[in-house]
Amino acid sequence: MIKAIVAGAAGRMGGRIIHMLEGAQDITLAAACEQAGHPAVGQDVGEVVGLPKKNIVVAGELAQVLDQGEVLIDFTNPEATLNNLRQAAAAGKAVVIGTTGLSAAQQAEVKALAAQTRIVLAPNMSVGVNLMFKVVADIARVLSAGYDVEIVEAHHRLKKDAPSGTAVKLAQVIAQALERNLDEVAVYERKGMIGQRTDAEIGIQTVRAGDIVGEHTVIFGGIGERLEIIHRAHNRDNFARGAVRAACWIVAQPPGLYDMQDVLGLK
Fold first, then answer.
1. What pTM does this model have?
2. Would you tell me how many other CB atoms lie within 10 Å of the CB of residue 50?
3. What pLDDT is recorded for position 81?
C-alpha cells in the first residue's frame, strides 16, 4: 500500500484529494500538513475535510510528517510548493505537483530538483483535459494556416493566477504544433482600436466569476466554419482522481520530471 502525504490538506483541492484517497485500493493517506498558523493545524484531518475521524492530525510543517509517506501530493501555492519540493527531494520522496502560477525561475528549479527524485508536474490532472492537450495539437497540425486560434478560460472568482495554467498549456501545445513562438504571438487582452487580427496570434482570454470550477474552450475559426473543443469541470473530483492516479504511478518511476501525458500513456 502506497502511503501519501497531502500538503494544503484544508484547501479546496487538498480536501477532495483526501476524499479520493479514502476509496482508493492501492494508496492511502498517511499524513497531512498545512501552513503554520492555519486553523486546521492540530485538528484531525478527517474532521477538517468532512470525513469521519481518521486519527491523523494536520501538521503545521511538512518536516514533521515527511518520513511517514512515500509520495507528497501538493496543491498549495508557488512558494510553499517549492519549499515542500526541496524537502521532499532531499529525502528522496516522490512528488505530485498541481500548483499553478509557477514563474519561469520556479519551473526551472522544479526541473533541477527532478534530478534528485521523481516529480509529476501538471497544471491540470483531469484525464479529459490531458486528452484535450493531445487532441488540440493534432487539430492544429491538420488545420494549420487559415484558422485563427482563440482560447477562453473561466474559473471561480477566488482564483489568483490568470490565465489559468491549463490555458497556458493549451496555448503552448498549439504553438508548438504550429511551429510558432508563443512569447511572440500570444495576445492576452484586446481593447480599443487594435487593428486587424494577425494570422499568427493565439488569443488567450480570461473570465473570473462566481463558483465556476473550470472551463476551457479552444476555438479554431476558419472562413465559413468554426471548430470548438470544450472541457467543463463539474466539480474538483476529476482533478483529485487524476492526482491520486499520478501518485500511484510516480512512485515506481526513475528520477525525472513527468507530466500527466506520461502518467496516462499519451506520449
1. 0.85
2. 9
3. 97
Is the separation of the CB atoms in 46 and 54 below 8 Å? yes
We report the CATH number of the domain holding residue 27 as 3.40.50.720
- Is 234 tagged catalytic? no
Q: Among residues 38, 54, 134, 159, which one is catalytic?
A: 159
* Residue 166 domain boundaries: 127-233
Q: Are residues 109 and 9 in the same domain?
A: yes
What is the number of residues in the chain?
Answer: 267
- Evaluate whether 60 touches 36 at the Cβ level (below 8 Å): yes
Domain count, the chain: 2
Is 3 among the catalytic positions?
no
Percent of the chain residues past pLDDT 70, beyond the cut: 100
Residues 25 and 80 in one domain: yes
- Are residue 12 and residue 115 in the same domain, yes or no? yes
Q: Are 216 and 132 spatial neighbours (Cβ–Cβ below 8 Å)?
A: yes
Output 182-190 pairs: Cβ under 8 A, ≥24 positions apart. 188/163
Q: Are residues 107 and 171 both part of a single domain?
A: no
Q: What's the grid cell of residue 192?
A: 480599443
Angle 160-105-138 from CA coordinates, rounded to 5°: 75
pLDDT score recorded for residue 266: 87
Which one from 19, 93, 155, 216 is the annotated catalytic residue? 155
136-174 pLDDT tens trace = 999 999 998 899 999 999 999 999 999 999 999 999 999
